[in-house]
Amino acid sequence: MENVLENVFGVQKPIIGMVHLLPLPGNYLYDDIGGIEAIVKGVIQDVEKLQSGGVDGIMFCNEHDRPYSFKAGVGTIAAMSYVIGKVKSQVKIPFGVDVLWDPIAALGIAKVAGASFVREIFTNEYAGDMGMWHTNCHEVFSYRKLIKAENIKLFFNINAEFSAPVAPRPLSVVTKSVIMSSLPDALLVSGPVTGIVAKMNLFKEIKENAGEVPVLANTGVTSETVEDILKEVDGAIIGTAFKVDGITWNPVSQERVNKLMQKVSSFKKNLKK
User: How far is CA 23 from CA 19, 26, 42, 67, 160, in A?
Assistant: First the structure.
């Protein structure tokens, strides 16, 4: 089986930094005064800091588009495509797309923008803050084939933030089931909400049952926990810990990126000894 993460990022144990776009047109918190150019400016600044700090990949996400929706609006899709296209020439590392919470929209934007991967909830049935959460993995794969996007890797959240499964099963069972029935390229382990890390035993449980499918930590990784987490899984997606004062909605902090990535660099050097 191919090593998905090494093929995409060129390294073991990649760290993917989040670029959270400011609220997009058509969403409640959109800034009519700053407009799209304020969004572009913020993205450019975050990309520069993440790349300067040495992350292995970037993921663009509409994290600020609260209240969240299961279906992205036309404004969200158009604006994300425009912004990523505007800054793409400055992105020197692999990048992905995450549209909350619309996998079809994420795939479409990723195809147009030339992204390497998408992150979404592709499987299971959930109930939570946004109501009932229905997924349709078959539909996503059919659309992926239709738009000739098989090269775009699908990173599956194996458990959902802000929600709980309608029919709970042990995550060890869910992991095996999803791999058998839904063909994920990688699995992501989340805490209950953005910025909160999963319990360490969940990383072990999912990794032990994932076979050759890589597993990444999806939320709550910090400079204090990153080394212990990377001992258990194959990489991490980091947003909040890279932000000014560790607050999700703030811009990226160069100091925090540098500090965390220095720890990652030391950890990887020790792996090679």
Answer: 12, 9, 11, 10, 22
Q: Nearest CA to 243 among 252, 254, 234, 231?
A: 252
Closest CA to 221 of 194, 186, 249: 194
Model confidence band, residue 231 (pLDDT cutoffs 50, 70, 90): very high
**Residue 85 and residue 48 in contact, taking contact as beta carbons nearer than 8 Å:** no
Omega of the bond leading into 214 within 30 degrees of 0 (cis): no
Q: In the prediction, which pLDDT does 51 show?
A: 98
For the record, the structure tokens of 35 come out as: 């407009």
**Stretch (H or E) spanning 204:** helix 200-209
153 neighbors 8 (Cβ within 8 angstroms): yes
Across residues 105-122, what is the average pLDDT? 98
